[in-house]
């Protein structure tokens, strides 16, 4: 199935590039139907696929150009059909001539695609905080929880941005710091994982720093991993970070923190019911799962709040909207039968050094106890 999907994607990219080169020849007023040019366009389509294998951004640039030109042609068609007076009224000839020149220049869609990519590049250079407040009568104290997820360390963003963010987090004096998976990935070297977890271990937290695995951390998608799973675990724990791999821990007198194994791990994971069988369900249960899945089951098991990442809020427009249409919890806060789910867009992106959808962020969750009145927060 994977090979079929990959083959279909490659074919679609080649067909799209063949069409795009034809449109560019049209805008340059060159006969694109010439047999020699058709052969050249086919060859360029093959070279485009080869380039995509060596440089991922080539694929994204190509797809955005294809989309921009297709949208431009569609809009032009709609205008011609919807506003015939523009093309019939004698007094509108000059306007028609200007519109025609703009269309035939082919500059507008290329400019639009370029603007989107430039925005995406600079958007990746900023990390902001996303704050949420969750109240519960199970809590006897207030807590500040910081979630860092999807850093993909030293692959997309400059590590200096994350070091600056670490300083911002320390100024918050959080009670808990949770590392929500994909902190490192297949492109991270052994030296870089050591640097990454030294940085994460330097975060200041009242109750400690806790880590769960994502789908990339253990470099499962490469035949030549830079480190073993044992080396990864030892590096994490040597920096004072606790791994919650299908485990839970009590925090204070009223909080249970449960960390899930990643849902895509080949060996599987235990059910949440099994994981929490010895936990005190009267406490506030905070679950951390890299992927926002099984949320209804978690709500049924009494989870009060679940923290997730993985989606990157789509990262590449319009993937986020496609996720939403497919029913994926893409980004933000959700209410699942009384259980709250917060999905972070992550600290950085994956695969491409641009973010054309969403933002790079760390999450700050304020857990608040409820006054006896049940209406306002305690001071």
Give the topology.
Elements: H1 2-27, H2 35-54, H3 56-82, H4 85-88, H5 93-105, H6 107-123, E1 127-136, E2 143-148, H7 159-172, E3 176-179, H8 190-201, E4 209-211, H9 229-238, E5 241-243, E6 247-251, E7 255-259, H10 272-275, E8 284-288, H11 295-300, E9 305-308, H12 319-325, E10 332-336, E11 339-343, E12 360-369
Parallel strand pairs: 1-12, 2-3, 3-4, 4-5, 7-8, 8-9, 9-11
Antiparallel strand pairs: 2-12, 6-7, 10-11
Describe the protein's architecture and organization:
It is a single chain. It is built from 12 helices and 12 strands. The mean pLDDT is 91. Helix 2 (35-54) crosses helix 3. The protein is of the alpha/beta class and 379 residues long. Strand 7, helix 10 (272-275) and strand 8 form a beta-alpha-beta unit. The protein has helices at residues 2-27, 35-54, 56-82, 85-88, 93-105, 107-123, 159-172, 190-201, 229-238, 272-275, 295-300, 319-325; strands spanning 127-136, 143-148, 176-179, 209-211, 241-243, 247-251, 255-259, 284-288, 305-308, 332-336, 339-343, 360-369. Strands 1-12-2-3-4-5 form a 6-stranded mixed beta sheet. A 6-stranded mixed beta sheet has the order 6-7-8-9-11-10.
